[in-house]
Hints:
single chain, 319 residues, alpha/beta, TIM Barrel, eight-stranded parallel barrel, 15 helices, 11% strand, globular
Amino acid sequence: MNNTLEQLKSHTTVVADTGDFESIKAFEPKDATTNPSLILKAIQKAEYRPLFEETVKSVAANSSLSESQTIDLAIDHVLVAFGSEILKIVPGRVSTEVDARLSFDADASITKAHELIQLYESKGIDRERILIKLATTWEGVVAARQLQSEGINCNMTLLFSMAQAVACAEVGARLISPFVGRILDWYKAKTGNHYSAAEDPGVLSVKAIYNYYKKFGHETEVMGASFRNTGEILELAGCDLLTISPALLEELKSSDQAISPKLNVEEAKASDIERIEMNEAQFRWMLNEDQMATEKLSDGIRIFGQDMLKVRDMVKELL
């Protein structure tokens, strides 16, 4: 019998949630995702330091911009350099994130996405292999609508609620990344309860979103993310995609537990779900009424923003 990871791959597209090239090679995922925190972790490793330093110094040597603009440009080049290396390993796509500090500025997010795509295309990489990650604020949704109309596919991240999921689907975002583990973290902190995998509030949230999408024929892909344990992952077998950290990929690879799909398109289509009418006012109200989603979205943007500032400080040191 195949190990649990190989079984999972037969039901779900497995994505590596890391910027570590060696981990990606070891687990042979189809796609890979990155974010500021993962890039920060990667460039602090000795084996990736040369790529980071060479990229920054090359930008600086050829830049006539101000120091601040040069730092911004160097960071873009670093993100694309890591993404490009990852695409030499995976057969599918890589996700590259727009600076979280732009999460409330649709126009600036669109501009940054254009800059990242242009850098990839200058390396001969087709935009079909890139997913631009945007925080799922209303401004992020607006940016996704415009980018998707231009053939730039978006991965909507920091997603914790049905309101966010519906808004993303209605603007045609290519993919969403609902954060399973961070939802569990919030509920455990608030209630003190321990949840089985089947009762995990993060798992239940993704199942509800998956069923809604399939019920109403939305083409946006659902990619569960931010897992705390393999139980959460196995409860979502059958989801379109799951992005998994190297540590949990190793656990799955080392296991021979038999699994079966828990999510099913036909069952979702037959489910009794009401369609949600979505606009900006409805989005903001529903998000406001969901304390968990409001707090975790805010926390996530703040953490990613802080980690991007740390990357920025490391670039500035080299300059």
